[in-house]
């Protein structure tokens, strides 16, 4: 995932900073990063769980052979789950389609 973070195209949403890079595999992978930003471990793990679930629901069905690193911004700590799901759905629309031919 370090390669994705270093070389990937940057896509920003309101509550996330995302790096995208074509995968060397035939399937995509997603990494979730939630920095502390001065919050407790409980708050951090809550944001991490919410992001993973939003990725599972909205992004994985549309994900092609790309690797992603999703990094939460400080604003992600202050929003509810539906807002994160909407942000991930917006991100999914901006990614290359799964059935697109290279």
Topology:
Elements (H helix, E strand, L loop, with lengths): L1 H6 L1 E4 L3 E7 L6 E5 L7 H19 L6 E7 L8 H14 L8
Parallel strand pairs: 3-4
Antiparallel strand pairs: 1-2, 2-4
Characteristics:
102 residues; alpha+beta; Ribosomal Protein S5, domain 2; 3 helices
Quick recap:
With 102 residues, this protein is α+β, with helices and mostly antiparallel strands.
N→C terminal distance: 22 Å
For this structure, the quaternary state is single chain
Name the beta content range.
15-25%
CATH fold group: Ribosomal Protein S5, domain 2
List SSEs in N-to-C order: HEEEHEH
> Rg, please?
13 Å
Main beta-sheet annotation: 4 strands, mixed
Low-confidence stretches: none
**Strand line-up across the major sheet:** 1-2-4-3
Number of DSSP E strands: 4
| SS content category | alpha+beta
CATH class: Alpha Beta
Count up the helices: 3
CATH architecture: 2-Layer Sandwich
Describe this structure as you would to a colleague.
The chain has 102 residues and is an alpha+beta fold. Helix content is 38%, strand content 23%. The chain is built from three helices and four strands. The chain has helices spanning 2-7, 41-59, 81-94, and strands spanning 9-12, 16-22, 29-33, 66-72. Helix 2 packs across helix 3 (81-94). The protein is globular and about 35 Å long.
